């Protein structure tokens, strides 16, 4: 029996018996207790008496198993497709780009016989779809899991970050992650915080129309994503999508600045409060800013733990203050407020916010305007919120602030340390001057 | 003692004794009980033994008073400034425009001696600030209240709507409402639903910089707002603000399509999923659409009751499903979901949403993309949400959907009737075809 995801011997027998694959969400029942998480791959050098799963909290644990251990697949992840490198000859002299499938429109085709959607993440299909891919990179594709992007959780961010780190350590010159578009901005922000001291580009890519439709944006997006991963010197986490509705150009947006701003258009993704990092036209990559992290031989630092004890709360006129009691009672560690204008909420919420802060939560302010900068010193409301201990979020997106707090409380439980981390620019989420030109409609 | 807000005799004595004015939020303690609300003006033809207040729920009640009645001012509203018509001669042949102050940057100046912000809502000041005002309209200004826009509540929407209706019945050819910018979009949507069969323009106007700063946008915005109110044939509720950062033009945006999209820029207000109704350049009004409600002699229908039992909930990856239990337990009548993409939330929330709907709440779906249209038939997630009873919000803004549900449950408690009202286009909040051109960045 051949090895699968690094598993062999006893471990492989138990996994096969119960029909689970690497990337599946599983429940493991042993004599010592039950464990739930995502089955992770192992090094083939390790023993065959343990399997490794990633828990909700981002920790990996090794579980000792026996022939009697019961492993149950839960959730709806699909098995990783085997690599099909034989389909098209690839030039070994080209840079290696690892393509990781996580689900979404770009990673699926419709089987017109059965009507079912199935993953299309094998290299043969990809290269047939866009032959130019084989001119820019040597591609290895694998499907980590297949999850609708609205079902992505902090634990998935954690698993993707780990997989990216593994591929970079294996020598990938760039990594491309195919992802559903709904929450691609959130995942891009998460990877931006989790993958520090990044030596190569990490490019998230999606499609608004699936690859078997004539109007698909999957082909151009994927080609440009691989191009940026293989060739550009922008060693950052970013999102690559169409720049306009025509197939003329794509933009590569810094992960923490990415927001989906249209439900259906191919140019749905916008860079907020900062220019896109680069434009891609044909096979040319044009950097649009000077201030980015260059490709280098540095060592990646993986910090991929995320907390689930964070909430994002959008303010609106007449909001019920008891929401803050609810959050305080449930022991939330961090709460992102999405206020109005320069960072305001109604004065009828002050008591609730005070109580939430007194319960030990870090409360930060962002603006539902999305564009521009929070400034809580202009009006009395802002100054009162500051005096209560609300931390201003400067020009950060509310969604990025949420992801950042999840990440911060994966790193520390100390409130003062958390506050310091939040106000420190880590991945370009804060910017000294405002990029006014990056706004229009 | 002269009449104040229509009060005289006994009522006026009691109000004066306790130092309260029309527009103040007050507590009235009588032998029969306590009442809290906003003191409303009365017709001078009515008796002097009652005062009228607008309760939280939008109802006006008359309270019989005696010399012993205690009236206490609560909150922070400021007295209405007396009209100062004598300051500048106004031509009686020009159309009457009523200008209602509700607070915000446009209605305030800084007293450079004391540092205090004070309302500047007297006609004399306004006409000195922009002499062209006296060439287009005869203006009557009054301050209804002075509330930071983040403190506006459904009860304020209700009071503003009532005041507008009063002025239209008095013969105003157009109404201008000066409003803080933070929640001006919400109020504009509220007035769009509350003021039906509108015969004249109702123009909300604000400023991003106060009128005593050299960079103020207050002067142009106010002039163009009065121009639209007096001269245009667009009998709709809308918001008038700068079109760009220069002082070249303004746009008049349909109330239900208005969103503040920048924290500080003068061109912060955008029209979402629909073109602006008109552009104003100099003293010329250029309609940008053909499909609008024309000025006419029809009778206004005032439907200004709003419910407080509605919530707006923004989805994010990892959201705690127990928020829906919280909402169900508190008996919310309506909940607007701000989902991702075409109208999705994580499958881990399905049970919670099901329970909320079973508790009797109307749950509607909008998209945090803001632009584009919800379509819940494309992916399995959307179809499951539809099967649970979630009502798709088409191309409505999440904020407008929230205001609409507040308004609907002010009109009816019947769930089926509410559903029917929600899916009916009332004020241009739904649009058959998508206005793709109204999107950019």
Task: For this entry, give a set of tags.
five-stranded antiparallel β-sheet, homodimer, Rossmann fold, SH3 type barrels, 23 strands, alpha/beta
Task: Please sum up the structure shown.
Two copies of one chain form a homodimer. By secondary structure, chain A is of the alpha/beta class.
Describe this structure in words.
With 441 residues, chain A is α/β, with parallel strands linked by helices. Chain A folds into three domains: 9-74, Roll (SH3 type barrels), CATH 2.30.30; 85-302, 3-Layer(aba) Sandwich (Rossmann fold); 310-423, Rossmann fold, CATH 3.40.50.40. Helix content of chain A is 25%, strand content 24%. An eight-stranded mixed beta sheet of chain A has the order 9-6-10-12-13-14-17-18, sandwiched between helices. In chain A, helix 6 (218-231) links the parallel strand 12 and strand 13 (237-242). Chain A is globular and about 65 Å long. Chain A starts with 8 loop residues before the first helix and ends in an 18-residue tail after the last helix. At the A-B interface, strand 20, helix 7 and helix 10 of A face strand 20, helix 7 and helix 10 of B.
């Amino acid at each position: 029996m051949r090895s699968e995801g690094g598993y062999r011997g006893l471990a492989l027998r138990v996994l096969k018996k119960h029909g689970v694959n690497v990337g599946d969400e599983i429940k493991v029942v042993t004599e010592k207790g039950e464990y739930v998480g995502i089955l992770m791959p192992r090094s083939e050098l390790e023993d065959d008496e343990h399997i490794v799963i990633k828990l909700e909290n981002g920790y990996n644990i090794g579980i000792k198993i026996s022939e009697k251990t019961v492993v149950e697949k839960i959730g709806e992840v699909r098995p990783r497709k085997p690599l099909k490198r034989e389909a098209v000859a690839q030039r070994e002299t080209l840079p290696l780009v690892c393509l990781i499938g996580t689900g979404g429109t770009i990673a699926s085709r419709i089987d017109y016989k059965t009507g079912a959607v199935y993953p299309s993440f094998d290299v043969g299909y990809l290269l047939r779809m866009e032959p130019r891919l084989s001119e820019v990179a040597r591609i290895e594709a694998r499907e980590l899991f297949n999850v609708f992007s609205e079902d992505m959780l902090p634990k998935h961010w954690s698993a993707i970050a780990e997989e990216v780190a593994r591929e970079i350590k294996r020598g990938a010159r760039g990594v491309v992650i195919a992802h559903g578009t709904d929450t691609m901005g959130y995942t891009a922000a998460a990877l931006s915080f989790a993958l520090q001291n990044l030596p190569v580009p990490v490019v998230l890519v999606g499609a608004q129309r699936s690859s078997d439709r004539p109007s698909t944006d999957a082909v151009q997006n994927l080609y440009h994503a691989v191009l940026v991963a293989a060739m550009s010197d922008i060693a950052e986490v970013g999102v690559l999508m169409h720049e306009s509705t025509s197939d003329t150009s794509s933009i590569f947006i810094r992960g923490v600045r990415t927001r989906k701003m249209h439900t259906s258009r191919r140019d749905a993704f916008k860079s907020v409060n900062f220019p896109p990092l680069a434009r891609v036209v044909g096979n040319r990559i044009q950097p649009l800013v000077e201030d980015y992290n260059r490709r280098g031989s540095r060592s990646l630092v993986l910090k991929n733990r995320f907390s689930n004890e964070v909430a994002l709360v959008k303010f609106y006129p007449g909001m019920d203050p008891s929401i803050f009691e609810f959050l305080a009672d449930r022991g939330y560690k961090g709460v992102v407020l999405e206020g109005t204008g320069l960072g305001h909420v109604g004065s009828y919420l002050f008591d609730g916010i005070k109580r939430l802060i007194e319960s030990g939560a870090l409360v930060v302010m962002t603006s539902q305007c999305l564009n521009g900068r929070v400034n809580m010193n202009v009006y009395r409301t802002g100054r009162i919120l500051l005096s209560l201990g609300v931390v201003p979020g400067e020009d950060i997106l509310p969604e990025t602030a949420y992801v950042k707090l999840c990440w911060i409380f994966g790193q520390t439980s100390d409130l003062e340390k958390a506050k310091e981390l939040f106000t420190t620019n880590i991945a370009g989420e804060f910017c000294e001057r405002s990029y006014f030109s990056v706004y229009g409609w």
